[in-house]
Write the structure tokens for this entry.
Amino acid sequence: MKIAFFDTKPYDIASFEKYGGDNGIKFKFFETKLNEDTVDLAHGYDAVCVFVNDTVNAAVIDRLCELGIKAIALRCAGFNNVDMKYAFNRIHVLRVPAYSPYAVAEHAMAMLLTSIRRIHKAYIRTKDFNFSLSGMTGFDLHDKTVGVIGTGRIGRTFISICRGFGMKVLAYDKFPASDLADGENIRYAELDELFKYSDIISLHCPLSEDTYHIIDEESLEKCKRGVVLINTSRGALVDAEALLGGIKSRKVGAACLDVYEEESDFFFEDYSGHIMEDDTLARLISMPNVIVTSHQAFLTEEALSNIAETTVENLIQLFETGQCPNELCYRKGNAEDCKTGKCF
Ligand code: NAI
């Protein structure tokens, strides 16, 4: 089986070569992202493997189908960059639903602690032998209220880390879990209540029509003064202009952003020698109370290994049996066809 692998980074290659090699799958690693201009690179392959910032819109799907590509294997959990309605009945779309909730949840907590204890400032100061503590006062997490939006795998892992710090949890989910609230320290609330009482808000829901700009001017208005916002989920959950306004007005005490709405133009690449074209991102990064990492939360050895293993398993299952539990849609919308592989 031959797979065209888009948006390749050096850290992807070892794990995919290992699992692919063990299972007779040959990956061709392209550095470029998949989009309408690059889709023809997939000619002659059986499937494409893509990541969060590849473009999988209707035009790309049409061309993949014309090229005889049978599957799009996402090597991530989120699939907001794929036009799923269009893909349905046309091409198989596979994903890695979970690879390490710990990687993302631990990164969220790392950003929070860095921010509120000013570790990013301290690191630079002491490198310069500046041992002054002025302006470094933080606050305890113990007894603070954290609002967690989205209580799936990552949200729950983050909640358990927060409980380790003795924090109280207000949770919101469109589909609340029956076994999460404990009647004491963790309880579900409506969004307005979560905004009103949370000292810290962490986003762990997927990006959808419902959640687009879930943090905007109106919701920030409802928040506590000094609220700390963490977004390790998807950039467009937050209206970046509104966040900037909230930071300038001192409503937002700090922001920890691993994702950004327009990240596909910049993240994962080195722009250190360039003029930053995105004024909002530049202004956010310039703020002393904003920490930005470039979609790094997933990047642990464990997660990389799990991503490669599951992606390879997904492809093998689909191509050998016509079915895969991690498939997001069926090419012909018919499970029987998929079982027999007829849909190829
Ligand atoms: P999950 O599917 O286990 O959990 C998502 C939760 O969000 C579910 O409980 C679901 O009911 C809830 N939800 C769905 N619609 C909602 C809505 N309208 N309002 C509130 N909650 C809603 O997903 P998981 O694994 O916890 O991942 C969460 C998100 O984290 C992913 O969608 C992805 O965007 C992001 N992610 C970010 C990574 C990074 O490197 N920064 C890596 C992996 C995932």
The longest helix spans residues 301-321. The longest strand covers residues 252-257.
